[in-house]
Amino acid sequence: xxxxxxxxxxxxxxxxxxxxxxxxxxxxxxxxxxxxxxxxxxxxxxxxxxxxxxxxxxxxxxxxxxxxxxxxxxxxxxxxxxxxxxxxxxxxxxxxxxxxxxxxxxxxxxxxxxxxxxxxxxxxxxxxxxxxxxxxxxxxxxxxxxxxxxxxxxxxxxxxxxxxxxxxxxxxxxxxxxxxxxxxxxxxxxxxxxxxxxxxxxxxxxxxxxxxxxxxxxxxxxxxxxxxxxxxxxxxxxxxxxxxxxxxxxxxxxxxxxxxxxxxxxxxxxxxxxxxxxxxxxxxxxxxxxxxx
Amino acid sequence: xxxxxxxxxxxxxxxxxxxxxxxxxxxxxxxxxxxxxxxxxxxxxxxxxxxxxxxxxxxxxxxxxxxxxxxxxxxxxxxxxxxxxxxxxxxxxxxxxxxxxxxxxxxxxxxxxxxxxxxxxxxxxxxxxxxxxxxxxxxxxxxxxxxxxxxxxxxxxxxxxxxxxxxxxxxxxxxxxxxxxxxxxxxxxxxxxxxxxxxxxxxxxxxxxxxxxxxxxxxxxxxxxxxxxxxxxxxxxxxxxxxxxxxxxxxxxxxxxxxxxxxxxxxxxxxxxxxxxxxxxxxxxxxxxxxxxxxxxxxxxxxxxxxxxxxxxxxxxxxxxxxxxxxxxxxxxxxxxxxxxxxxxxxxxxxxxxxxxxxxxxxxxxxxxxxxxxxxxxxxxxxxxxxxxxxxxxxxxxxxxxxxxxxxxxxxxxxxxxxxxxxxxxxxx
Lengths: 293, 429
Hints:
Chain A: Belongs to the binding-protein-dependent transport system permease family. By secondary structure, chain A is mainly alpha-helical. Chain A contains 13 helices and two strands.
């Protein structure tokens, strides 16, 4: 039987984490929701209570809808690449490729993850450059010059150019997560399946997929919430432009808060981002019914 | 048991203390120059982390601390757009820098709104010699509510720069009127030369064109009323006309300017690939080491324009003092040193910027064409402020993003002004 003192000590151990969570996560979250009902500017401490005005403005603001659409596009493309394609890639690297080539392939796909996002984004501004960019140069070199395009400077292509950079950078990371989880699948399962005459594809569908369900869920949550909080890529590559064509919620929030100096409205946008990611995480947790395994 | 518990308690305390310490450390690049036996530390916050200006401030601080034992100066610096965000937050905070950079106009006003900007009128009345050393027309842009809140370090004026060789080859003389500009541009285009280098990926470049065109075309009384947040409507057809004129230049500009950064366009001009470019005076500093022979001319006059057709666009930039500085006397000392006549000439010598000290550029080692620019600015009765310094930031945001779409061919001038009018309505409140 443990003494009351020892149990009290248990709570003491929790204290640092609780203080940390409280100060850096819970308090700012609550404060932000409070701010979203007021109007104030950077640097001045005066806040005017405006009730739901900021949320009314949010619903009527066409740029919010552009940004939201862009975030949804981001999420869809990211799930396709960073969950489905990365999963297939992981299985390919692990099972199909001979082991030496597999190691090389793994490093090859993982390399971009090690680069700073800022560096990657600046690098891609050179690749996408309209006049001297590598991509347009390549297209011209192979006789597809008519496809050359001001990728980042055109409202129709800017957001897709930005999204593609994120895929290039992140696919290696999720692939590695899948590889780790695949390596934890007991080999007996594959041996038994092979004895029953199951070929590689069948093994993938019947063993690998269900056995890595937990990881697929984790990656799905990471990718989707990442897609709704993405900032660095569009901020550096296009700054949300041309116009507001490649604006996402986070860059628009930044612009409203720090450029337009409307901190109250920016807080409302931050709350919107939080609610969206929270709802999506809860929805996915329920759908996959994981967390208890 | 006691010992173990004490140890654990200690560990927990260290962990908490570590967390607190971690959050109190400041971020951002900073360097401290400590004088011998320093007792007072001042913070100087500016927006030039790159050379040559970064080095200029470091050597300035060294000179200052050598002359003022007992004071040390910590320099903080963050680049342009980030500076705008950071200075607005930090000036209003208890950790405000003592002396800091500011643009003039609405930006200065936004810093004054934090309540931590020192009014300089007393200092200037006491030290008339200090006040009189500045070019007179550079002081009003730093007045907010009738009070002098900052002083200029440099004058910035916008000029058309042209490539002398290309102009001579095509027999073109610097255009004085809008029609002459279009004719010259057409001539270059026909000869296979890019007439005007321009990149609008950075939205502020749009503000420079539109601000000048508005000034030339519209009645000053109209822009005065519209640029005021409480009364702005932007219904005058002159605004649509100004945007149409801007769009008329597009066929002669760098193709798909929305995909081109300002610096990239400028590099093209320096490399001799374009005949003209609308640039800030001090940007000539980037031409050093190139073989470019250049000249400047003022923005052409507009047919039927109601504004002063020879006015220059530009605004000074300078420094301010924090009202709540813990060391007010030392801060004023640093401020006066920073803006002294000797340092002003040094500023032009080392960085190419045009000092706001009377006759300062003339005494510097700058080329004659630069001295001419400085004299043009000093002689100008009034300057047109940058559009993005003159308007409420919400209007700036709409005006620039929508005009960027005009340049991309997705919007018409009327569409743009409708969006601006809608935002103006919101800003009027």
